[in-house]
Amino acid sequence: MTARLVVAILIVTFQPFASLIAQERATLRVYLARHGQTDGNLNRRAQGWTDTPLNETGRLQAALLAERLDGVRLDAIYSSTLSRSRATAETVAAGRNVKVASLPGLREVGLGRFEDLSLDDPLLKGRPRGEERGPDDGESPGQVAARVNEAIATVRKSHSAGNILIVGHAGANGYVLRALLQMTAEQMGQVGVQDNDELYMIELTEGVKPRVFKLIPEGKFNEL
Questions:
Q1: Among this protein's residues, is 35 annotated catalytic?
Q2: What is this structure's pTM?
């Protein structure tokens, strides 16, 4: 079976992967995407809350996300307040009868005085860890978890069933998964970083163990 055929199957069957039990109960499907590429991503910068726009590749990735979700009825689309997230979400929303709701709690992890440094900068590598971070060191894991949990609670309160899209960020989306799947910090740490062109679908049904599906872009099959 070729990679192209496998991807086609994933795309076609992405939404109806529910079990028979899930089909009989109210199910919420959360499509979780990362924003398209920015020059900060391309140049390996630690962006954090730095508001960098999508570059040309990022705009193409946003359009591809919209194409992948074509035919999926979305009841709501959420983004963070940062433009790279919102622009990606608005690309999907274009032509749909749904507006993008931007939630501050979905923003990327704030880095304080370490914003916009190279990922290879020794200063960034020396950033205090965990709850040892001071006011100028950016957010602690506990702070990120608290505001992401609040944002996800708001979303879940508004949607007990249906399909929604959340467009977030590499770091923050790990906390989104943690909140949706009720993972521990250790379990979250075992989840790889979501790429700019990857899409997850989390299926939540009361009384049924959550199910997670990942769409792997065709060109990445050779990397597995």
A1: yes
A2: 0.86
